[in-house]
Amino acid sequence: MKRYIPLALRIIVAIILLQTLRFKFTGHPDSVYIFSQVGLEPYGRIGIGVLELIAGILLLIPKTVWAGTILTLGIIGGAIFMHLTQLGIEVNNDGGVLFITAVVTFVLSTIILYIYKNDIPFINKA
């Protein structure tokens, strides 16, 4: 059971990242609104979508989990920062769902990175 928990966490975070891509890549009005508010529409929306796609794939490949997790922490850290500084916790009357999802994703990614910390190649393993 213990060995399946890291895999489950990776799959959960990958699903969260990958399920948002349809909104970013199709130009959903909510996604366009969010990225317009932070001055990143349309290039930031598409660029971050591509980065989320890469992170989601890296999380599912055992040898690159560490890279996917670090990339996810950067992306989601930026999203949380934008919520706290420009967007607010609630966006378009969503009840804070996007913000809560970002926080959950950040926490799960932190746990995953801790689990896979020994796989990071540039960390001294002395």
From TrEMBL:
Q: What is its main location?
A: membrane
Subcellular location per UniProt equals: Membrane
Q: Does Transmembrane appear among the keywords?
A: yes
* Keyword Membrane belongs to the record: yes
The membrane topology of this protein is:
Multi-pass membrane protein
For this UniProt record, give its keywords in alphabetical order, as a comma-separated list. Membrane, Transmembrane, Transmembrane helix
Q: Which domain of life is it from?
A: Bacteria
- For this protein, the parts annotated as crossing the membrane are 7-23, 43-61, 68-89, 95-116
Identification of the protein by name: DoxX family protein
Classification lineage = Bacteria, Pseudomonadati, Bacteroidota, Flavobacteriia, Flavobacteriales
